[in-house]
Automatic annotation (TrEMBL):
Name used for this protein in its record: Uncharacterized protein
Molecular function via GO: rRNA (cytosine-N4-)-methyltransferase activity
Ranges for region Disordered: 33-64, 376-401
Source organism (scientific name): Paspalum notatum var. saurae
Record keywords, A-Z: Methyltransferase, S-adenosyl-L-methionine, Transferase
Coiled coil: none
GO biological process assignments: rRNA base methylation
Compositional bias segments (type: Acidic residues): 378-399
A Pfam family per the record: Methyltransf_5
């Protein structure tokens, strides 16, 4: 299969026929672990009997913290009216796009969207909705490091455009012909990909109008046991997004130095009990090591206290799997570098939108956006000052971005990230930890 493919150019016409909403498959996915989480993993058979401790005010502090968290959640929830019909058209049986209405709202302004890049194509839910909403689009580029996901997304785009061409015929109101390309590339290569299509896009002479990066794991990946991403299905300890990569989760578990193993459990998994898990993994190496996700899950189950159901161990397993996946794919370093590259590729007035799913990603996006608009290191203390928040912007009426941060190179349109509406969370539980942040180049 060729790494990149030019899709046949089609004219854009009427909307594609609606489809019934695909059923959402409930799967275990990595999620942000807040400070309120209680460590669920305890060593069995080695702990001393606990003595009751008098902690006056502990319950009250916990209630206050939860009330504050719920207040912050309400403050950042999307105020968009939920469009079930839109989700019905753009959902796939293997994947439901997250924050779809909010992404569409992001790119309605401030300019026509004549060029758009989807850095994480997946099943093409976001891309198809963007094509439908922007008949003026002349250039589309879809990228995905996962060749299986790319094939699915590519097929959906081809079918969508062919359907519109067949039903639309000739239209005098047509604003242009869409050139569509797909590339089997990680989004860190965005400049290289844009340069292969049009050199002026990569060197900053023109730039693109919109770029989307969705960092979430799709159900297409999680539900396939042979990829090794799911804690609920036994499979190889792989976890590579790019099958051509050499490092696998099995290599980390069986051969990485103990200190480095502990570091990724602590930093990438945000696991409070990382030291005990690290020691148990090293002990298991001496008795044959790990060769499947089931081996790792069994170890975690033995270590964790299971009270009701499987929630006791599954949260710990999810954090461990998250840590391994991030390390295997070098996700955090790639993310920071890619944000800089993507911002460079934007035209003046162009926007970059990023959807993250756990706190590590969100912190990087937040910090890097501030660095980009200020042209240097972000000041963690300064970024929260009230005088950076802009409540209005030259008469623009965009309720999605009610607090903004102005810099000399751009505007962060989301001082606080946008989170899914309650209606979307009911439809798709996997979206509950999603956060959308948007930056605009000036």
């Amino acid at each position: 299969m060729a790494a990149a493919r030019r899709l046949f150019p089609f004219h854009l016409h009427a909307r594609a026929p609606a489809r019934a909403l695909a059923a959402v498959v409930a799967v275990a996915t990595p999620h942000r672990r807040g400070k309120h989480d209680v460590a669920s993993c305890k060593a069995t058979g080695k702990t001393k009997p606990s003595r009751p401790k008098a902690k006056a005010g502990k319950g009250g502090e916990r209630l206050q913290r939860r009330a504050l968290e719920e207040h912050l959640k309400r403050r950042t929830r999307s105020g968009a009216a939920f469009d079930a019909e839109l989700y019905g058209r753009r959902s796939h049986e293997l994947h439901v796009p997250v924050l779809l209405g909010e992404v569409l709202a992001t790119f309605r302004r401030p300019r026509q969207l004549r060029s758009f890049v989807d850095c994480t194509l997946g099943a093409a839910g976001h891309s198809l909705a963007m094509m439908e909403a922007h008949p003026e689009m002349e250039l589309y580029i879809g990228m995905d490091v996962d060749p299986s996901a790319l094939e699915i997304g590519r097929a959906h785009i081809e079918a969508f455009l062919a359907s519109r061409e067949a039903k639309g015929g000739k239209d005098d109101a047509l604003q242009g012909t869409l050139r569509a390309y797909t590339h089997a590339k990680n989004f860190k290569y965005i400049k290289q990909v844009l340069g292969s299509v049009d050199e002026s896009l990569a060197v900053g002479l023109s730039g693109v109008d919109g770029i989307l990066i969705d960092l979430g794991m799709s159900s297409m990946q999680v539900n396939r046991s042979n990829r090794g991403f799911s804690v609920l299905q036994d499979g190889p300890l792989d976890m590579r997004m790019d099958p051509k990569a050499t490092l696998r989760a099995e290599d980390i578990l069986n051969s990485w130095p103990e200190l480095e193993l502990g570091r990724i459990l602590r930093d990438y998994g945000e696991e409070s009990n990382w030291q005990f898990i690290q020691k148990q993994i090293v002990k298991t190496r001496a008795t044959g090591g790990f060769h499947s996700t089931g081996d790792l899950v069994k170890l975690i189950q033995r270590m964790c206290t299971i009270s009701k159901g499987r929630q006791g161990w599954i949260k710990t397993a999810t954090r461990v799997f998250q840590a391994l996946r991030i390390a295997v794919n070098d996700e955090l370093r790639i993310l920071e570098d890619s944000l800089h590259s993507s911002f460079d590729c934007l035209a003046t007035g162009g926007r970059l939108a990023v959807i993250s799913f756990h706190s590590l990603e969100d912190r990087i996006v937040k910090k890097t956006f501030l660095e980009l608009i200020h042209g240097g290191e972000a000041d963690d203390e300064e970024e929260d000052e009230d005088d950076l928040a802009l409540t209005d912007m030259d008469g623009e009426d965009e309720p999605w971005f009610n607090q903004r941060v102005q810099g000399r190179n751009g505007i962060v349109l989301t001082k606080r990230p946008i989170t899914p509406s309650q209606e979307e969370e009911k439809l798709n539980q996997r979206c509950r930890s999603a956060k959308l942040r948007v930056i605009q180049k000036t």
